[in-house]
Design goal:
11 helices, elongated, cell membrane, transmembrane helix, alpha/beta, binds uridine-5'-diphosphate, binds magnesium ion, 323 residues, transferase
Length: 323
Amino acid sequence: MQLSYRPRYSIVIPVYNEAENLAELQRRLSAVMAQLDGPTECVLVNDGSRDTSLAQMRQLRQQDPRFCYVSLARNFGHQIAVTAGLHHVRGQAVIIMDADLQDPPELIPEMLAAWRSGFAVVYAKRRQRRSESWFKRLCAYGFYRVLRQLSDVDIPTDSGDFCLLDRQVVTALNAMPERVRYLRGLRSWVGYRQTAIAFERDPRYAGSVKYTFRKSLKLATNGIVSFSQVPLRLSTYVGLLAACVAIFMVCLILYWRLFIPNSPLTGFTLILVAIFFLGAVQLVSIGILGEYVGRIYEEVKGRPLYTIGETAGFETISARGRL
Ligand code: UDP
Ligand code: MG
């Protein structure tokens, strides 16, 4: 079964082991899609799930031709899964949301209203994160503010990937060749008229968090390294500071030696502290440098962003070229 019309709205949903959520997701999405004033497609991106998610997607597709799917050949991570979805969507307005129903689909009509009034990017801003642990809330709070300070691009705080993008923005994002993708930043980088809608982020409908601490840390590092060069300069500043401290200490030692007999200073401890301090500064600097060099290496390899196992619902694309 094929859609015989070109969808006006597209919804991209990355899915990684979300079998328990898909039925409820379909139920709530169908209710929302029924209210929309134009044809809608829903692009599910299977990010290498190991549960029955893919089988459920095939079934969903059979029941409702508005659901299409792209199945990646392995787990490539959330940001790449969304990117794969953006490469496939055909709508004029594209909504990105999670599969765990933490992003309420009922917000979509409100986002579309803002889009119709002329905004190219409508992002959802979390009012509260009651459902998450205090540690995660603290990290997120700190991270968004540090990133904002460090970055030249105005990246809004407390907004995740739940957003609406105009076709113009999707085209701009799809033209970006970079492999390390921090979509929240790229979305701000493109410019255009942007606005926020505040919302309460619900707890997960079912299943466990797929963004492990390691994945979150990687996302945060990618965000900072992709959008700021301040960490690179940091080592220069710390180096200068260490030089000032060293000069001050030389003066202090000279003063003690020349004017204070039997000074309490023991050279050994001082040297040890200095060695440890400078060693630490140097290692951290090399580490920071490594983060950037690693990304250059990643980009230079020029591998494709992802590999696709199977797709369904995009046959019209290959027949007629990209819509
Ligand atoms: N996800 C994904 N690949 C991954 C990890 C997560 O596609 O490697 C998807 C997941 O299925 C969900 C969304 O990304 O739809 C957000 O994940 P999660 O709910 O675990 O993160 P959080 O809500 O804590 O940001
Ligand atoms: Mg979630």
